[in-house]
């Protein structure tokens, strides 16, 4: 009776919440108050796939849901992206029958990395994808090793782990463990021999702290590595990006499946590869997955094309306090051979909590914007002075850089007399302030 | 002039390296030629060759690894500080100079014991906060961010009084250690970029004269905006 009541209340609250545009965590929060072990009482599908990590969770989950649905599977998943236990509870109860059964073939859960333990103390995960461990919102998350410990606590012994072999921090989860599936990339044409990053989170072995060596870097600390002392090394992969051609905008998986990219960059290749891996393990044929992923444009609104007067541009939603996210966006802009202007906005550091910390600006490799493809750089927002200081420590000539505290004024400047493509790089917390100034296409 | 940046590649969690960039620039603007030596685990350095020494913040595990290596510098470091030479340590690096660090699993690590304060880490916890604090040697307050899993007890040589945000431990009120020209604070990241007045103060110690400060326009404006935002929040 309590179960039935909880399910009904949660479904009702969610329905009302949708009408009035409320978030998806409140109904689950109330359900957990009414019946703290409600998740134990629900009959869940045989296949429960969870995704966590610093970056790419939402995109990867969306891609997996897309592939599986297109190939005839039914999937219950947290498409709203509420990824702590409350949001996951809302999602599960919304997908449950009144008798308490989730009928979908697959339950697909995006989980917040720090609070995964709480969520998975009620749910037996069959497959657990860990995408990467990056410096992300350090003002909230501490640092990668701290997040590592939080994720480690959430792993159940029988769960099959699906791990990014190219991230030495993530690979530790599979160290001396049997049931692991590895995904990663071979040496790629876009690789560098030397590290291209302001800092190196792969400098020392995560197991024994001796120096590590890389034969190749895909980007930042992601690459092919081995410890000089204890033998810890990058594992051979079961699912592999075997080639990448950014001019054609194409990647190749396992030497045979070609997937064309909606955005010609490395930006999404690990998300695509993780989705490919999960789809394969669920039994979807590689060629079918490739067909589903060709030119796939994410619906999560992170890449948005716009017009500003006669100019065209793309907003690359990047995460403030997440330097690798910014580095990726900068690489996309730099690859624009016809020449581009770049707009960077830092107005509110976070949308969820207050902080004035700008240390993360110093972890971003802005030096990459010192490139002939980049014509002008426009810096905007309340923290424009901190951006200006950061840029004064690059070799970018000062006359290429323009400062505006006011975002409207920055948009006004961009809308007068120039014709280059525009890349706008900013965060969820600030993107609407810019999008209100342009025509979204 | 010569700057020593110790453990630059393993104690560099929050853009700490930028403290060195800021110092190098202000010293160069003041007419000095500056070299920076970056020496990490397994390296060796003669402290007396340097005009300034810096260590940044690291993960708890990395700090323990560095602590073992830092042992060898214990006597040099004591002499360097006693001779009034300037040292800055940000984040959890200064904890290594105390009597003991107890980690989250209650394992004890002996510190260099240059000071008798102790550090206790709490497992699975993170203490993070925006900060406003004051130093008795600076007119304006400092702004910054603390991000730690530890509490520090019994510091006798106080550095900052806290006006807003976290301090050494739950008792509040104080943050960091200041002895001769050694400054140890849990403020993380590029605190000298964010607090140009502290940068000027340190540069003056290193130079033995007033530095040239004409290049710090954006730094000053950035500082003021952050101070205003934090003060607004503190008033609530």
Describe this structure in words.
The complex is a heterodimer of chains A (441) and B (236). By secondary structure, chain A is an alpha/beta fold. Chain A has two domains: 2-293, UDP-N-acetylmuramoyl-L-alanine:D-glutamate ligase (3-Layer(aba) Sandwich), CATH 3.40.1190; 303-440, Mur ligase, C-terminal domain (Protein-Tyrosine Phosphatase, Chain A, Alpha-Beta Complex). In chain A, 30% of the residues lie in helices and 22% in strands. Chain A has 14 helices and 18 strands. Chain A has a nine-stranded mixed beta sheet with strand order 2-3-1-4-5-6-9-10-11, sandwiched between helices. Chain A has a seven-stranded mixed beta sheet with strand order 16-15-14-17-13-12-18. In chain A, strands 7-8 form a two-stranded antiparallel sheet. In chain A, helix 2 packs across helix 4 (85-94). The mean pLDDT of chain A is 94. Chain B is α/β, with parallel strands linked by helices and 236 residues long. Chain B has one domain (2-235): Class I glutamine amidotransferase (GATase) domain (Rossmann fold, 3-Layer(aba) Sandwich). Chain B contains six helices and 13 strands. Chain B has helices at 18-29, 60-70, 74-82, 191-194, 196-207, 217-235, and strands spanning 2-6, 35-39, 52-55, 87-90, 100-102, 108-110, 118-121, 127-134, 142-148, 150-153, 158-164, 174-179, 182-185. In chain B, the strands form two sheets. Chain B has a nine-stranded mixed beta sheet, sandwiched between helices. In chain B, strands 6-5-7-10 form a four-stranded mixed beta sheet, with no helix packed on it. In chain B, helix 1 crosses helix 5. Chain B is globular, with a radius of gyration of 17 Å.
């Amino acid at each position: 009776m309590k179960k039935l009541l909880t399910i009904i209340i949660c479904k009702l609250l969610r329905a009302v919440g949708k009408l009035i545009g409320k978030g998806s965590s409140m109904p689950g929060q109330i359900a957990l108050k009414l019946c703290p072990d409600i998740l134990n009482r629900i009959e869940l599908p045989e296949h429960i796939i969870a995704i966590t990590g610093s970056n790419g969770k939402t995109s990867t989950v969306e891609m997996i849901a897309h592939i599986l649905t297109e190939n005839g599977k039914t999937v219950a998943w947290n498409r709203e992206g509420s990824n702590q236990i409350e949001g996951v509870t809302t999602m599960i109860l919304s997908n449950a029958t009144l008798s308490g059964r989730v009928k979908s073939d697959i339950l697909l859960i995006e989980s917040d990395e720090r609070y995964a333990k709480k969520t998975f103390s009620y749910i037996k995960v069959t497959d657990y994808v860990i995408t990467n461990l990056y410096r992300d919102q350090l003002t909230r998350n501490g640092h990668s090793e701290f997040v590592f410990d939080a994720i480690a606590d959430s792993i159940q012994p029988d769960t099959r782990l699906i791990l990014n072999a190219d991230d030495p921090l993530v690979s530790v989860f599979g160290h001396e463990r049997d049931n692991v599936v590895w995904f990663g990339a071979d040496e790629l044409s876009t690789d560098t021999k030397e590290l291209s990053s302001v800092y190196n989170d792969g400098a020392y072995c995560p197991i024994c702290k001796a120096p590590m060596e890389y034969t190749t870097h895909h980007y930042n600390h992601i690459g092919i590595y081995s410890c000089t002392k204890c033998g810890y090394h990058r594992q051979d992969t079961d699912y592999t990006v075997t080639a990448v051609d950014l001019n054609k905008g194409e990647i190749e998986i396992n030497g045979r499946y070609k997937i064309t990219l909606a955005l010609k960059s490395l930006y999404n290749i690990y998300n695509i590869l993780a989705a490919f891996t999960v789809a394969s393990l669920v039994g979807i044929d590689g060629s079918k997955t490739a067909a589903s992923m060709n030119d796939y444009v994410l619906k999560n609104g992170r890449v948005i094309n716009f017009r500003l007067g006669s100019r065209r541009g793309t907003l690359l939603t990047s995460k403030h306090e997440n330097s690798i996210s910014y580095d990726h966006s900068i690489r996309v802009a730099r690859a624009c051979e016809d020449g581009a202007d770049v707009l960077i906005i830092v107005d509110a550091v976070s949308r969820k909590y207050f902080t004035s910390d700008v240390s993360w600006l110093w972890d971003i490799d802005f030096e990459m914007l010192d490139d002939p493809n980049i014509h002008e750089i426009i810096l905007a927002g309340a923290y424009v002075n901190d951006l200006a200081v950061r840029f004064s420590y690059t070799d970018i000539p000062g006359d290429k850089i323009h400062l505006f505290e006011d975002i409207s004024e920055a948009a006004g400047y961009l809308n007068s007399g120039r014709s280059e493509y525009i890349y706008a790089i900013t965060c969820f917390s600030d993107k609407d302030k810019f999008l209100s100034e342009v025509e979204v296409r | 002039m010569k700057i020593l940046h110790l453990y630059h590649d393993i104690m560099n969690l929050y853009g700490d390296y930028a403290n060195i960039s800021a110092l190098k620039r202000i010293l160069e603007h003041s007419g000095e030629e500056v070299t920076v030596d970056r020496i990490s685990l397994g390296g060796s350095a003669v402290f007396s060759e340097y005009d300034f020494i810096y260590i940044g913040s690291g993960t708890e595990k990395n700090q323990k690894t560095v602590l073992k290596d830092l042992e060898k510098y214990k006597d040099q470091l004591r002499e360097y500080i006693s001779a009034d030479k300037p040292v800055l340590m940000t984040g959890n690096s200064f904890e290594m100079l105390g009597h003991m660090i107890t980690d989250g699993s209650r394992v004890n690590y002996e510190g260099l014991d240059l000071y008798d304060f102790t550090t206790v880490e709490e497992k699975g916890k993170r203490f993070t906060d925006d900060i406003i604090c004051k130093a008795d040697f600076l007119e304006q307050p400092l702004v910054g961010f603390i991000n730690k899993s530890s509490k520090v007890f019994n510091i006798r040589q106080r550095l900052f009084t806290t006006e807003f945000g976290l301090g050494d431990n739950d008792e509040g009120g104080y943050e960091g250690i200041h002895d001769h020209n050694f400054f140890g604070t849990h403020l993380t990241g590029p605190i000298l970029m964010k607090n140009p007045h502290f940068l000027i103060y340190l540069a003056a110690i290193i130079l033995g004269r007033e530095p040239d400060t004409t290049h710090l326009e954006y730094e000053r404006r950035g500082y003021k905006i952050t101070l205003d935002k934090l003060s607004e929040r503190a008033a609530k």
